[in-house]
Amino acid sequence: MEDYQDAIKKHYQENWNIEPKVYFFDKGPANQLPHGFRVLEFPPSRDRSMWTYATCCMSQENDIAKIELHLFSPTKNTSLIELLTVVAHYHRTGENLGLNHTINFGRPWQENSYCDYGFISLPYMDGPDLEIMPIEKGEINFYWLIPITKREKEFKVLNGAEALEEAFEEAGFDYLNPYRKSVV
Questions:
Q1: Which stretch of DSSP H or E encloses residue 68?
Q2: Does some domain include residue 181?
Q3: How many domains does the chain have?
Q4: Does some domain include residue 177?
Q5: What is the rounded CA–CA span in Å between residue 108 and residue 103?
Q6: Spatial CA neighbour of 57 closest among 30, 95, 29
Q7: Is residue 124 domain-resident?
Q8: Residues 40-65: pLDDT tens digits?
Q9: What are the phi and psi torsion angles at 82 (to 5°)?
């Protein structure tokens, strides 16, 4: 397990060129998560102006579809450690999450934000070098968890993920703005 956890952490570090702080959220049913599960916090750096929070061992070596998620924040926000822990818990004990899925956060992404859902997208900011990590038993996919509004989630359900991403692009949406209005 340690090797798998170390490999995921190293993959993030090689892509983002910065050492993370490692967190374990130990409240609620966190004990139902895999033994090595952690959330990594990457501070801004010379190359990246935002904070990044990422799951580590949300997937397990023997999973058929192995995924890890990350999200961005304009500020340091340790409540995102709890948020990613809850998302990982849902993935492990509820429904398996995957590319283009949406998830109800159950609360705003940031305080007073309109974004209280998440959309699992390709990591457009980082590309395929981050997205796919080959391992002995297949590959791990690293996806971007984009905070979205309820209206955007409903639009995606009706029109599909590609239509939502096109709406983001057309609107030039500010993915770091917790107070942004819906693009649809």
A1: strand 66-73
A2: no
A3: 1
A4: no
A5: 12
A6: 30
A7: yes
A8: 999 999 989 999 999 999 999 999 99
A9: -65, -45
